[in-house]
From TrEMBL:
Family recorded in the similarity comment: Belongs to the sigma-70 factor family.
Top-rank taxon: Bacteria
PROSITE patterns: SIGMA70_1, SIGMA70_2
Single GO BP term: DNA-templated transcription initiation
SUPFAM superfamilies: Sigma2 domain of RNA polymerase sigma factors (SSF88946), Sigma3 and sigma4 domains of RNA polymerase sigma factors (SSF88659)
Name listed for the protein in its UniProt record: RNA polymerase sigma factor
Role this protein plays: Sigma factors are initiation factors that promote the attachment of RNA polymerase to specific initiation sites and are then released.
């Protein structure tokens, strides 16, 4: 039996020493995720402690019947715990001007979509709003971060309803694992630059402008390339 799986099994049986050892052996994993959230207004040590809470949840909830590595299962739970901490404690700050621009961009997108019969490009949106593409990209990125699935949409008498609570909970965890395996298979068929673009955008959480600088291409090229990759993946699925 795999060393980590054996420890998880012991932990599930109430072995606190095995649980503590799992936390110790995954310290590097937690710090690796914490680094993604540097310069967000919180101390690194605080983020590490919050990350460990996510790690403990992953240990307790991990199903030994899943054919997936524990680290693969733990990463989204650790990062999710840190995100909730930053969000709930108001660490993620978005300026009023960016919020307003994101709102205007949403309205403009709807109008252009009706006129063009398709999704407008960032360039077209920027031209209509008379702003720089980079500024618009920052606003859109900020807006998507604020509109989190964990955002409260209703509060009354101590009860809170989050956006994610309004979504249908049809997928079981087993199905999510299958989807992950399918996605992994699809990603292996991409070119090296395409995989790097997806990694920078969805795992390193960089803006299209930042990705463009790393890949040596423009933000517009990144936007087009990203849409093309995602469309191809959807078609394969």
């Amino acid at each position: 039996m795999d060393h980590t799986i054996a420890l998880i099994q012991k932990s599930h049986e109430g072995d606190e020493e095995a649980r503590a050892r799992l936390v110790e052996e995954n310290t590097g994993l937690v710090w690796c995720i914490v680094k993604r959230f540097y310069n967000r207004g919180a101390e690194a040590e605080d983020l590490f402690q919050i990350g460990n809470i996510g790690l403990l949840k992953a240990i307790d909830k991990f199903d030994l019947s899943y054919d997936v590595r524990f680290s693969t299962y733990a990463v989204p739970m650790i990062s999710g715990e840190i995100r909730r901490f930053l969000r709930d404690d108001g660490m993620i700050k978005v300026s009023r001007s960016l919020k307003e621009l994101a709102y205007r961009a949403g309205k403009c997108r709807e109008t252009l979509q009706e006129q063009l019969g398709r999704e407008p490009t960032v360039c077209e949106l920027a031209q209509n709003l008379q702003v720089d593409e980079e500024e618009l990209t920052m606003a859109l990125e900020a807006g998507s971060e604020v509109e989190s699935l964990h955002r409260p949409v209703f509060q009354s008498e101590g009860q809170e309803v989050r956006l994610m609570d309004k979504l249908p909970q049809e997928k079981e965890q087993e199905e999510q694992i299958v989807n992950y395996m399918l996605l992994s298979q699809l990603l292996t068929g991409l070119e090296k630059e395409e995989r790097r673009l997806l990694y920078l955008r969805y795992f390193a959480e960089k803006t299209q402008t930042q990705v463009g600088k790393e890949l040596g291409i423009s933000q517009v090229q990144v936007s087009r390339m990203e849409k093309r990759i995602l469309q191809n993946l959807r078609e394969q699925i």
